[in-house]
Amino acid sequence: MYLEILTPEKKIFEGDVTIATFPGADGSFQVMDNHAPLISLLSAGIIEYKTKTGNDRLAITGGVVEVLKNKVVLLADGLA
């Protein structure tokens, strides 16, 4: 699936990932290939995602994530 991570200042990441974990407002959740569509608020916490080259982590202060047609767009309030 394709993941984009954006802040108001710049694009942080874009590329293919196999799995991503987000700090949801009601607890953390994972998204994998062909996940059902969803929109969720995110709390401050750590985002983890796995690329072909390995695992990456990123701390955010909150935001919103949208999953639709194997594309995940994260609009982060800012980086922690």
In short:
By secondary structure, this protein is mainly β. The chain has strands spanning 2-6, 11-16, 19-24, 27-32, 38-42, 45-51, 54-60, 63-68, 71-76. The model has no long low-confidence stretch (mean pLDDT 96).
Q: What secondary-structure arrangement, pairings included, does this model have?
A:
Layout: E1 2-6, E2 11-16, E3 19-24, E4 27-32, E5 38-42, E6 45-51, E7 54-60, E8 63-68, E9 71-76
Parallel strand pairs: 1-9
Antiparallel strand pairs: 1-2, 3-4, 3-6, 5-8, 6-7, 8-9
Describe the structure.
With 80 residues, this protein is mostly beta strands. It has a single domain, classed as F0F1 ATP synthase delta/epsilon subunit, N-terminal (ATP Synthase, domain 1, Sandwich). The protein contains no helices and 9 strands. It has a 5-stranded mixed sheet with strand order 2-1-9-8-5, with no helix packed on it. Strands 4-3-6-7 form a 4-stranded antiparallel sheet, with no helix packed on it. The radius of gyration is 11 Å and the shape is globular. It starts with a strand and ends with a strand.
Helix content percent band: under 10%
Most strands sheet: 5 strands, mixed
Q: From the helix content, strand content and strand pairing, which structural class follows?
A: mainly beta
CATH domain topology: ATP Synthase, domain 1
Radius of gyration: 11 Å
Q: Number of DSSP strands?
A: 9
Number of helices: 0
What is the count of distinct domains? Answer: 1
CATH architectural group:
Sandwich
- CATH class (first level) name: Mainly Beta
Walk across the major sheet and give the strand order: 2-1-9-8-5
- Strand coverage percent: over 45%
In whole angstroms, the N-to-C terminal distance is 25 Å
